[in-house]
Amino acid sequence: QVQLVESGGGLVQAGGSLRLSCAASGRTFSGYSLGWFRQAPGKEREFVAAIWSGNTTYYADSVTGRFTIARDNAKNTVYLQMNSLKSEDKGVYYCNAAGQGNNYWGQGTQVTVSS
Question: Would you say 24 and 4 are in contact if contact means Cβ atoms under 8 Å apart?
C-alpha cells in the first residue's frame, strides 16, 4: 500500500523558516515527479513546487527564491525548505507523487505563519 506521510509543519513567525518532509512507502518513487501543494482556508489547492526524476525543479512565482525543493531517492523522501515565510504562505501543505499513470497524495501538514 502506497503512503505519503508529511511532517515538519507548525507555527512560525513571519520571516522564519520551516522544513517539510514527505516520506513515501509502498513503492520506489525515483522515477516519479514529486511535488508540494498547499491549500489555505477557503481557497483551492495550489501548486507550490515540484522536482522531476532528473532533479529539474519548478516553483510557483509566489515562492521562487524563498522555497527549495529537494529529493533523496535513497530515502524515498522529498523535502521543502521554506525561508522568509509570509502570512500568505499559511495553509495545509500536501505532498504529491505522480508518475506511471499514478497520482498519490499525503494527508497534509499544517503551516501557520504569525505576523
Answer: yes
Cβ-proximal residues to 34 (8 Å cutoff; 6+ apart), any chain: 22, 24, 50, 51, 69, 71, 78, 95, 96, 97, 98
What would the DSSP string read from start to end of the chain?
--EEEEE--EEEETT--EEEEEEEESS--TTSEEEEEEE-TTS--EEEEEE-TT--EEE-TTTTTTEEEEEEGGGTEEEEEE-S--GGG-EEEEEEEEETTEEEE---EEEEEE-
Mind listing the pLDDT tens digit for each residue in 51-109?
999 999 999 999 999 999 999 999 999 999 999 999 999 999 999 999 999 999 999 99
End-to-end CA distance of the chain, in Å?
A: 40
